[in-house]
Amino acid sequence: MEHNLSVGLDIGTTKIVAMIGRKNEFGKLEILGIGKSKSLGVHRGVVNNITQTIQSIQQAVQEAEAAADIKIEDVTVGIAGQHIRSLQHSDYITRPNSETVIDDDDIDRLVNQVHKLVMLPGEEIIHVLPQEYKVDGQAEIKEPIGMYGGRLEANFHVVVGQVSSIRNIGRCVQSAGLNLEGITLEPLASANAVLSQEEKEAGVALIDIGGGTTDLAIFRDGIIRHTAVIPFGGNVITEDIKEGCSIIEKQAELLKIKFGSAWPGENKDNEIVSIPGLRGREPKEITLKNLSKIIHARVVEIVEQVYVEIKNYGHEEQKKKLIAGIVLTGGGSQLKHLKQLVEYITGMDTRIGYPNEHLAGDSDEDITSPLFATAVGLVLDGLKRQERKKVEAQAEQITEENQPETIKEEPKKERRSFLDKLTDRVKDFLDNAE
Question: Residues near 200 by Cβ (< 8 Å), separated by ≥ 6?
Fold first, then answer.
């Protein structure tokens, strides 16, 4: 596969998307091919049928390969699902010599210490995100490297998930004949695709409403402050319509997409949709007012749960206010009048997030749909990872060429993110498990 190409694989509850992209000469993302298949083996973001998931992945990948006329080998995969939770934690280290400046190694030591936290059985730390540092009691330091100090403290946002679920995703990708290039947290991928830097600085909550789960990522001062996965999404709305109107799932999904609205007030009492009955039975008549009441009840529940998480982060405190409000993305964000409902419940400014922040201007309208926010984010992530590797390789080369034999300095290596380490661990596990 060419070097400047990247493939994002979004394994969702309702659909699996494979997306091939590359940077064009203006540094924007150009999508070369996209493949989409119905996801059959995933429930609430967690794989529960390996064989079906492998087939769905292969189908999406083949479609993308055919569209772009490129053979896919490496993919960047997103993880989400109801097993992801996050916590706040602070930790400190005492430095042996306070007369030297704080460097990368000190921060690595501090971060590794967080990794020793005891988790529930089967859980593992996926992500450790430093929020702010303290050096010798001096607070609110963004970047302690280069400062003097004996005691280095930090607040961390720690994301935890179940190892087995992550390994299962790795297993599916490998069995589909692909190479796992990287693993990324899906709320972070979606955020990269739809949020602008200004929004992340001002404070913003990204709500990604998928089929099986709703992901939340909160940014402030450009740093991720809080993440959560709520185990409800568009599928429960469809389920409610199916039960409430006694129709089959396919019809319920179509009704939701075509006539659904999150705001019951706007439908008149006499607006009726007729649905063909099953084999020889009478057609059913459903009033749109009833339909939107069913949808409204469930959407309110989802939004309120998300709002609880935003409050848990501390949105009500002056210092933690989210000035840019809320951005809604994911397939579920296309529901009519959802924006107004979210504004009504939370009192925060809301917009729908389209993943066009980094896309080339002539991209297809389909690709800029909120449906593909996570996939676009994963492609971006894969490209970033490749650039990092390139920089590291060049640094090593330069060092080897320019140094006389006696003094070989270590090239300055960029700190590897936990997800890179996690990817390596999952790969090792899969290689040794066969």
Answer: 191, 219, 220, 222, 223
